[in-house]
Design a protein that fits this description.
By secondary structure, the chain is mainly α. The chain has a domain of 61 residues. The chain contains three helices and no strands. Helix 1 packs antiparallel against helix 2. The longest helix has 47 residues.
Length: 91
């Protein structure tokens, strides 16, 4: 009886831990959706331009891609940097 109770307790602990972990991952989903949308906009804009304006949009696109990659791997990203990317003020 003690063994069954032990395994039951361990099972509930694992399920609770998974639930908590999933909740911590969820806030990034909204941020990632916003960054992906901004990336698509930059890509669309860059395709329509030529010359120096196109180069600026390609640099913006690169900065957005770098930010997305850093968020995906869990690196810390300065909130000011994310705000700049989302507002299109990438330098």
């Amino acid at each position: 009886m003690k063994i069954k109770t032990f395994f039951l307790a361990v099972g509930f602990s694992v399920l609770a831990a998974k639930s908590i972990w999933a909740q911590h991952q969820n806030p990034n989903a909204e941020l990632m959706a916003q960054l992906e949308q901004r990336l698509a906009q930059s890509d669309s804009e860059a395709r329509q331009l030529t010359g120096e304006p196109k180069e600026l949009w390609l640099l913006r696109k690169l900065k957005i891609e770098e930010t997305i990659d850093r968020v995906k791997v869990g690196q810390s990203v300065d909130p000011k940097e994310i705000d700049m990317v989302l507002k299109g003020q990438v330098e």
